Amino acid sequence: MALEKVVLLVGGVGGAKLAYGLYHAMPPENLTVIVNTGDDFWLYGLRICPDVDTITYTLSNRVNKTTGWGVADETFITLETMPLLGETPWFRLGDKDLALHMIRTQYLHKGKNLSEITKHFADSLGIRCKIVPMANEFIETKVDTVEYGELDFQEYFVKYRWQPTLKSLRLAGIDQATLNPIIQDAIHQADMIIVGPSNPWLSINPILSIPGMRDLLRSTHIPRIALTPLIQGQAVKGPTAKIMQEMGLSPSNESVIDYYGDVINGFVYDERDHQPARSLETLFSLDTLMDTEAKRITVAQNLLSQINDRIKL
Ligand code: FO1
Questions:
Q1: Nearest one of 309, 10, 272 to 132, comparing CA atoms
Q2: Closest ligand 1 atom, CA of 199?
Q3: Residue with CA at minimum distance from ligand 1 atom 12
Q4: What single DSSP character describes residue 207?
């Protein structure tokens, strides 16, 4: 019997590529995408959820394909007005994108939770899979840096373009977070868990750190397979390899596998790399580069068929 129900854990731009591939490689109704919200923050009185929005815009074909985040054919009239009022914006919120943040913030103030609001946007935009924020509570990734001390995540990532040297990471609010019943149900019903090629420390760890999440994943007797975020020791985009070095780790598949530990029981490395020297129930290679929309679908198809073939053995 084919493994049908898939739960995907992801962050933003890199993870959205695999989410897009899976969405088109399988019946989307069987896909649940659990998204990091550790990057969320408040700006101009609005709640911004960059990773959830990147997934939503990507799956509804509204994303800006050049940046991988934000909306295509965007205008920035609101932002361009701000310097007249003495404000220098460093986070590029487009006018169309602002509409979503305004509605989300209004709904939050009215007492709706982030899962309900995310579902409302996904339904409105015709998305047929489930997009679920990792938690309804507000959790903030804080980055302690050599140069500037502790920074809010978006200051570190966008304002300083992830150039400061990372000392450590902290998830403010994580102890108060609770496992969302929608996530519990999706994982109980899943036939496989896929950990996307997102940054393990910045994007996946916040999801795994929700109290009870690691135990819930470990308790399942299904494939739990991570797709490498590295090709030949480098991330396709973003600071994965840089922060690994800053944390004293070699930017290798072995370091990623060790970091995930027994949360995963399988790993997919890129075909350009050697087989990681680790024993896992499932270990195979693919061409993991998703530099075109067609290749995202091919990677997802190959991933699903390889996992299915191996499980049948
Ligand atoms: N990333 C940037 O590098 N610069 C930006 O100005 C920026 C604005 C932005 C606005 C809305 C949104 O949903 C995402 C945005 N991102 C921007 C991307 C995002 O902040 C990061 O890629 C993620 O947080 C890391 O996963």
A1: 10
A2: 26
A3: 50
A4: H
Alpha-carbon span 47 to 129, nearest angstrom: 23
β-sheet bridge partners, residue 267? 226, 283
Q: Whose CA is nearest to atom 2 of ligand 1?
A: 158
Report the C-alpha gap between 119 and 127 in whole angstroms: 9
- Dihedral angle of Cα 239, 245, 250, 256, to the nearest 10 degrees: -40
6-39+128-143+173-312 CATH fold: Rossmann fold (3.40.50)
Query: Left (φ > 0), alpha (ψ -120 to 50) or beta: where does 244 sit?
Result: alpha
CA of 3 to the centre of ligand 1 (A): 34
* Residue 310 confidence (pLDDT): 84
Distance between CA atoms of 194 and 254, rounded to whole angstroms?
18
| CB-CB neighbours of 109 under 10 Å | 9
Q: What is the pLDDT of residue 229?
A: 97
**In the numeric block, which tokens belong to residue 238?**
């973003």
Global pTM reads 0.97
Q: Residue 51 in contact with residue 11, Cβ under 8 Å?
A: yes
Domain ranges, ordered by start, for the chain:
6-39+128-143+173-312
Sole residue written with tokens 């198809």? 301
d(CA 63, CA 277): 38
> Which two tokens mark 32?
């649940």
Q: Are 233 and 47 spatial neighbours (Cβ–Cβ below 8 Å)?
A: no
Does pLDDT of 254 surpass 80?
Answer: yes
In contact, 222 and 188? CB cutoff 8 Å: no
Q: Which structure tokens are listed for 60?
A: 């509804």
